[in-house]
Design goal:
Blueprint lengths: L7 H10 L27 H8 L4 H8 L3 H7 L2 H12 L12 H16 L5 H8 L6 H7 L10 E3 L1 H8 L11 E3 L6 E5 L1 H12 L2 H12 L5 H24 L3 H12 L6 H4 L9 H5 L3 H7 L8 H23 L5 H23 L6 H22 L2 H7 L3 H9 L3 H20 L5 H6 L2 H6 L16 H15 L2 H26 L11
Antiparallel strand pairs: 1-3, 2-3
Length: 514
């Protein structure tokens, strides 16, 4: 089942809103005809149909929602008959089916979408599995499928003839058993056998589709529409939950370990792994790829293609974990290499992830490049303290993206400037400054204090000092270093003046200030 030029995601959304009888359209009224030149709506219906035949279902629905005239033309039977043929292989003929081609397309699209995703759709499973046999409405749809995960169908000859038009002579010699109520006997058939019998009787799958549509034209489709809308709303959560928790036991344990490997997470929130109370959204937020999938951003919003990308991503994670554990590294370095590599992989492939499926090989190729760059950054930083401190520096991310050695030199210079600030405040002549300076300002001057972009905002003294230090670290201009010294000394003198004021003002503040 393939649509012209794709567009399943948008078609799914539009069909969820489209009723079988009408659609919401924008009535532009007579204002269109106020223009003197000839426009699209001045063309005859025949010419419009010839133009609209070039459109895929998504575009056809879009055009039909603009005004009443185009809605009428876009509902033309010939347009949707072509799409039925292209998407489902059905040669639509009004001689055998009284419902419109557009409505037929909608019904088939909803059913095929739901049945294709039956494995993760608990609501539809309840409809099909709770009764044996299922209600006749669903049985008619099920006969369109060659493989049905249900016990053999047990129905009297007359019911089979009414549902699928198969004559009793075609059922001769088939397995029979006594009915549960003891009244006559029923035919027992596997669903695949029933499907093949239908193909033999009707001549082709396309003819079966036409017959089922003819039988369904008088039925109430509210259950199908409700299930489809529910699936449209929750499909990403359902697919993610099924993939994460419905794996075979050995693989399930391995997947859980890889999913949480070196990721900072709340043990309380993940303790319900696989249970109904588990916080799925929290689990999805632990990885960029799963969070994108949860939001419907992978593979153009196609849930099945997106979940394949997620599978390939964690297959790459498995290879990455195995490689890292094989190195003689400490826990902190392993965690840092792993998380920075995953961050780099997502950053490099983000645009491509949103439009196509990324396989394991492509993930792993990018991961090896990113991992080599992370290790090079670790060598440049010399030790773990420096490494942890520079990951917020823009040069760090630029090197991860480009691999350009120039950014490594910038990182080395950044660390040297950080050391100069540290050495200055710890000079003997600045002992009085260290004693008087407030704790938050004093910490900013120490070498191992990490200054991130989030510290630069606000009107507090620490925010002002952070901005000056940030300018010096990234520019190297001496005037900013002098500004740091002046700001720190002024802050210490102001604190000294406050202490003196307190000591000579009895009754203002009784406790002594050190």
């Amino acid at each position: 089942m393939a649509l012209v030029d794709g567009g399943w995601e948008e078609l799914r959304e539009q069909l969820a809103l489209l009723s079988g009888r009408s659609s919401v359209v924008v009535d532009v009224g007579p204002t269109v005809h106020q223009y003197s030149h000839t426009g699209l709506l001045h063309l005859s219906d025949e010419v419009l149909v010839l133009i609209l035949r070039l459109l895929d279902p998504v575009s056809l629905l879009r055009v039909g929602s603009t005004c009443r005239t185009l809605f009428r033309v876009c509902s033309c039977c010939s347009l949707w008959s072509r799409l039925l043929q292209a998407s489902f292989g059905v040669s639509f003929t009004t001689a055998t089916i009284s419902i419109s081609a557009k409505h037929s397309f909608r019904l088939l699209f909803m059913w095929r979408t739901l049945y294709t995703n039956l494995h993760c759709n608990r609501s539809l499973q309840e409809k099909l599995f709770t009764e044996r046999p299922p209600p006749k409405y669903w049985v008619q749809w099920l006969v369109l499928e060659e493989r049905v995960p249900l016990p053999p169908v047990r129905l009297p000859d007359c019911e089979i003839e009414k549902l699928w038009g198969i004559g009793r002579e075609s059922l001769e010699g088939k397995c029979r058993e006594e009915a549960e109520d003891g009244d006559g006997n029923v035919l027992k058939m596997e669903w695949k056998e029933l499907f093949n019998l239908n193909v033999q009787h009707h001549g082709s799958v396309a003819n079966i589709l036409q017959y089922v549509l003819h039988q369904q034209e008088e039925n109430d489709h509210r259950d199908l529409e409700a299930l489809y809308q529910q699936y449209t709303q929750f499909r990403f959560q359902w697919h993610f939950s099924y993939w994460l928790f419905k794996q075979p036991k050995p693989f399930d344990r391995q997947l859980r370990m890889i999913f949480l490997q070196w990721q900072g997470h709340s043990k309380q929130k993940v303790s319900g792994w696989g249970s109904p109370i588990c916080n799925l959204k929290y689990l999805a937020s632990l990885h960029h790829i799963t969070l994108d999938y949860w939001r419907g951003k992978l593979a153009n919003g196609d849930e099945n293609a997106g979940i394949r990308t997620v599978e390939n991503y964690f297959s790459m994670c498995k290879s990455l974990v195995a490689w890292i554990l094989g190195q003689n590294w400490g826990r902190f370095k392993r965690r840092k290499v792993y998380l920075d590599t995953l961050e780099g992989v997502h950053r490099m492939l983000k645009k491509e992830l949103h439009t196509s499926v990324i396989d394991h090989k492509q993930f792993w190729q990018v991961a090896k490049v990113q991992m080599a760059r992370v290790c090079k950054l670790e060598e440049t930083a010399v030790n773990y303290v420096n490494w942890r401190m520079i990951d917020a520096v823009p040069y760090y991310r630029l090197y991860m993206v480009s691999g350009c050695a120039v950014y490594l030199e910038h990182i080395k210079v950044f660390l040297r400037r950080k050391r100069l600030i540290h050495d200055w405040i710890f000079q003997e002549e600045n002992t009085w400054v260290r004693r008087l300076l407030s704790e938050d300002l004093y910490l900013l001057l120490q070498f191992d204090t990490k200054i991130s972009e989030g510290n630069l905002h606000g009107d507090s003294l620490s925010a002002h000092l952070s901005r000056i230090i940030w300018l010096y670290l990234h520019s190297g201009q001496q005037l900013y270093m002098e500004a740091v010294k002046g700001f720190v000394q002024h802050s210490a003198q102001a604190r000294l003046g406050y202490c003196v004021l307190v000591s000579v003002s009895p009754g203002f503040y009784s406790p002594s200030v050190n």
